[in-house]
């Protein structure tokens, strides 16, 4: 129904060149109404070098298919990666311009390239005498491997994207996320909420239940199939009255069971607090300090303020005070866009250090 289309958002991640118009029409018929398109770059040489199968022409063809299938209800996001090898500052600005002018996505997710141990990139860009990755970097024809932008250039790319996309009407509502006014990713905002709850399905998928209970499904197919069989057996067993609304695999975790001891609950509260602080400070809405003090304690509230003070002094953090019902002052801690977001790890770590001293 039209009401369901307005309230339920079902996103499917896809890569350019991997679907046809007929397939997309079938996905739409099944209820898919939002697409996340893994574009990454608009440069064929770069796409080839990072191991992507699609090319720039595939990106434009994919967007044409999206437009023809969804028409006036088109709602799609594009993933881009900044800091890729061979991408200059000029090319980065041109990429953003082409995306906004030609592709017109309702949402963008922009991630900075991370070089991790054990990956092809990690081996390519490790120092020749660095044994920390378990093996020395193979001397593949390194002349054919483009150099990475410097940290300063990557920081500039981040700041430029924030400024440019904001001027083009996108809201920078999370460190890596930009959207048109009413097109924020709904499922992501659940993850970033104060009491997140979601069910995740599939290999390695992690679900969350109130009070920071998390459950990750098996990552290996054989283990997953064995786990599914176990859940089928559990469905035949009676569960606690309070757990009737929970799926059986959550019931099996004894989440509502009285055997959960106080220490487990304290650890769960600490984990939940850390998650909330980290995720809320990654958003433009920030961390509601009133909520923090009401749901935890004044001591924790003051520790968070102490941890954020260096950021405040450097102009990277703001504490905004407003009015709520003309009686209670609303206090919100948020990072300044874009400089505060750039140093988010440092600021959040400083807060965690203060909390660890309690």
What's the total number of strands?
11
Which regions are unreliable across 5 or more consecutive residues at pLDDT < 50?
Answer: 128-143, 252-259
Q: What gross morphology would you assign?
A: globular
Approximately how much helix is present in the residues? 40-55%
Q: How can the largest sheet be summarized?
A: 6 strands, mixed
* Total helical elements: 15
**Widest sheet: strand ordering:** 1-2-3-4-6-5
* Radius of gyration, in angstroms, nearest whole number: 23 Å
* Percent of residues in beta strands: 15-25%
- Estimate the mean pLDDT confidence: 85
Specify the structural class.
Answer: alpha/beta
Characteristic key phrases:
44% helix, alpha/beta, 15 helices, single chain, six-stranded mixed β-sheet, 16% strand, 11 strands, globular, 358 residues, three-stranded antiparallel β-sheet
Your description of this structure?
- The chain has helices spanning 2-7, 21-30, 44-49, 56-70, 89-103, 120-124, 151-167, 186-191, 221-235, 248-251, 262-281, 289-295, 298-313, 339-342, 344-356; strands at residues 11-14, 34-40, 76-82, 107-112, 171-174, 177-179, 206-209, 213-216, 287-288, 317-324, 328-335.
- The protein has 358 residues and is of the alpha/beta class.
- The chain has a 6-stranded mixed beta sheet, covered by helices on one side. A 3-stranded antiparallel beta sheet has the order 9-11-10. Strands 7-8 form a two-stranded antiparallel sheet.
- Helix 5 links the parallel strand 3 and strand 4.
- Helix 2 crosses helix 4.
């Amino acid at each position: 129904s039209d009401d369901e289309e307005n309230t339920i958002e079902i996103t499917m991640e896809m890569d350019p060149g991997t679907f046809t118009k007929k397939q997309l029409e079938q996905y739409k018929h099944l209820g898919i109404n939002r697409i996340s398109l893994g574009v990454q770059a608009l440069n064929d040489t770069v796409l080839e070098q990072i191991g992507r199968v699609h090319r720039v022409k595939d990106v434009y063809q994919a967007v044409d298919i999206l437009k023809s299938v969804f028409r006036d209800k088109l709602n799609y996001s594009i993933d881009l990666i900044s800091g890729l090898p061979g991408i200059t500052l000029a090319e980065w600005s041109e990429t953003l311009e082409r995306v906004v002018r030609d592709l017109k996505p309702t949402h963008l997710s922009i991630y900075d390239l991370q070089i991790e141990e054990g990956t092809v990139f990690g081996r390519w860009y490790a120092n020749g005498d660095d044994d920390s990755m378990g093996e020395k970097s193979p001397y593949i024809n390194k002349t054919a491997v483009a150099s990475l932008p410097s940290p300063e250039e990557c920081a500039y790319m981040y700041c430029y994207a924030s400024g440019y996309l904001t001027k083009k009407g996108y809201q920078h509502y999370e460190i890596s996320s930009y959207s048109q006014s009413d097109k924020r990713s709904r499922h992501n905002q659940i993850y970033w909420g104060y009491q997140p709850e979601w069910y995740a399905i599939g290999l390695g998928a992690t679900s969350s239940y109130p009070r920071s209970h998390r459950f990750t499904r098996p990552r290996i197919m054989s283990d997953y199939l064995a786990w599914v069989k176990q859940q089928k057996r559990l469905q035949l067993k009676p569960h606690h009255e309070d757990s009737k609304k929970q799926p059986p695999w959550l019931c099996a975790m004894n989440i509502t069971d009285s055997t959960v001891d106080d220490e487990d609950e304290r650890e769960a509260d600490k984990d939940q607090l850390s998650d909330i602080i980290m995720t809320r400070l990654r958003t433009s809405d920030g961390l509601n300090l009133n909520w923090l003090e009401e749901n935890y304690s004044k001591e924790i509230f003051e520790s968070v303020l102490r941890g954020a003070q260096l950021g405040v002094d450097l102009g990277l953090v703001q504490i905004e005070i407003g009015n709520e019902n003309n009686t209670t002052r609303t206090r919100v801690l948020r990072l300044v866009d874009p400089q505060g977001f750039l140093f988010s790890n440092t600021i959040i770590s400083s807060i965690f250090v203060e909390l660890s001293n309690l």
